[in-house]
Write a structure and sequence with these properties.
about 475 residues, mainly beta, Porin, twelve-stranded antiparallel beta barrel, two-stranded parallel sheet, elongated
Length: about 475
């Protein structure tokens, strides 16, 4: 931002002296010795006329100012010249930008009065909308991790996504004062293309569409300390997942409701005056998924498999597997988030972890099962498995060389607690662990730059509905703010 310093010079001109006005006065009396004795005595002078109250005021004599000029206002220098950060400037607000919401934040301390700044905070209501591209691969496909007997766990794919975000209620009112809460809606369509050869696709380079989330997110600050070093806020997220993915559609999923609630806290580290590590953003989340499905097990009417009945006869069935559908899932998570400046640009680092509880449907059987030899009562497992546990871990960075674009690199692992060998798995690594790299293109920031002025910081809504390969029932690894 270019700054101009306006210097005001006040020049006062004082006019000293005045011209004497010649008035009509009688001639001075002659000397007594020179007086004419025969002259008549002088008459007394006439009294002055009485003032007229309706007459206008007498104009001042030429050369006298009518009144003293007002002193010029004191010159207030910008804080970056005086070192004063407590006296803000009050420049007039810039004119509305075409295409904006009509109200822009006036330039802050340090901006020149009356000059529209080159950058502003994000202002359009649909900020947070972006295009994203990414590629991810299992660590085993990259030669990292243990050696596998086969390549069944090796997977490489490329994904494309679009995040659409819109603020129905802005965090601030039209006059710039805080509203106290905000409401936005969001959706994120996308698809993935597998680059390896596996049994999950039927054609080469088949695009696999993801489930489509439709979200309404209500956010509200709960508490802020007097020094603004500490803060607590919450977000309530009402999400509905539409079964647009091949996996959900083929398993008989009609709809998934996914309400969520998150608590965020800003915790100071070195203080807001520090150059780095000023604070850390921590939070915890709770999520409940309920699937509306065709049956308690995966079914597909388009696939008829021959099966043998208990009587020994053959029948056709649309049941895909004998495993239970995760009708209800409870997911808990926690995350840690740093916001720093690297080479003057925005740098983010995050850590996340979670535990998901999948509640399994129990089979409903009668006390008697009829077979060819009679009636048999089925035996039951004394301690059946009713819950499936899935752990997740993620670490990643995001860097934005400009507010219009940035890139991300992250590592993630999500797997069941018990592996195929019957042993507990490491929550930080498994054969399904993935490395991902992505590119984020902020379409709203590009729009603001084209219409002017450009924004000074990126505004990115993080969210992903990518499927995590290798986890039963396609558990989702997601970071959502």
């Amino acid at each position: 931002m270019k700054h101009r310093l306006g210097i005001v010079f006040a020049l006062g001109v004082g006019l000293l002296g005045h011209g004497a006005a010649l008035a009509q006065q009688p001639a001075p009396a002659a000397d007594a010795d020179q007086a004419d004795p025969n002259a008549p005595p002088a008459s007394p002078p006439a009294p002055p006329p009485s003032p007229n109250p309706d007459a206008p005021p007498t104009p001042p004599p030429p050369g006298d100012p009518a009144e003293s000029p007002e002193a010029p206002p004191p010159v207030t220098l910008p804080p970056y010249l005086t070192g004063n950060t407590t006296t803000p400037l009050n420049p007039p607000p810039p004119p509305p930008v075409p295409g904006g919401n009509g109200t822009l934040t006036p330039p802050g301390p340090g901006a020149d009065a009356g000059v529209t700044p080159n950058t502003l905070p994000a202002r359009v209501r649909w900020r947070g909308s972006n295009l994203n591209w990414g590629t991810n691969a299992t660590t085993t496909a990259l030669g990292i991790g243990r050696d596998n007997i086969s390549s069944s766990h090796e997977h490489v794919s490329m994904g494309f996504g679009l995040t659409l975000n819109y603020f129905i209620l802005e965090p601030k009112l039209a006059d710039g004062s805080p509203r106290g809460y905000s409401l936005r809606v969001q959706t994120a369509p996308g698809f993935d293309v597998e680059l390896t050869n596996s049994d999950t696709t039927t054609t080469k380079r088949e695009p696999l569409f993801r489930d489509l989330p439709v979200q309404a997110i209500f956010a509200k600050p709960l508490w802020r300390s007097a020094d603004e070093e500490w803060g607590v806020s919450m977000a309530a997220n009402g999400t509905v997942l539409l079964p647009t993915s091949k996996l959900s559609h083929d398993r008989g999923v009609y709809l998934t409701t996914s309400p969520r609630v998150s608590i965020f806290a800003i915790v100071p580290l070195r203080g807001k005056k520090a150059d780095f590590l000023k604070n850390v953003f921590v939070g915890t989340s709770l999520r409940w998924d309920h699937q509306f499905t065709r049956a308690t097990v995966p079914t597909n009417p388009d696939i008829q498999l021959p099966r043998q009945t208990l009587q020994g006869t053959m029948t056709m069935s649309d049941q895909l597997t004998g495993g239970s559908v995760d009708t209800n899932r409870l997911a808990t998570g926690a995350f840690l988030f740093f916001d720093e400046k690297l080479f003057g640009k925005t740098f983010w680092l995050f850590l996340s972890g979670g535990l998901q509880y999948s509640l399994l449907n129990q089979p409903q059987t009668s006390g008697c099962v009829k077979i060819t030899t009679g009636c048999v009562e089925p035996t039951r497992v004394e301690s059946p498995t009713t819950t499936r546990y899935t752990t997740s871990f993620g670490i990643g960075i995001n860097y934005f060389p400009a507010s219009e674009w940035g890139f991300s690199i992250d590592y993630g692992n999500a797997n069941t607690q018990i592996g195929l060998d019957g042993k507990r798995r490491n929550p930080f690594y498994s054969p399904e662990a993935t490395l991902s790299a992505g590119l984020i293109l902020s379409i709203d920031a590009i729009y603001e730059r084209l219409t002017g002025p450009a924004r000074d910081e990126p505004f990115i809504v993080f969210g992903s509905n990518k499927k995590t390969r290798g986890v039963p029932q396609a558990a989702q690894r997601e970071i959502l703010f």
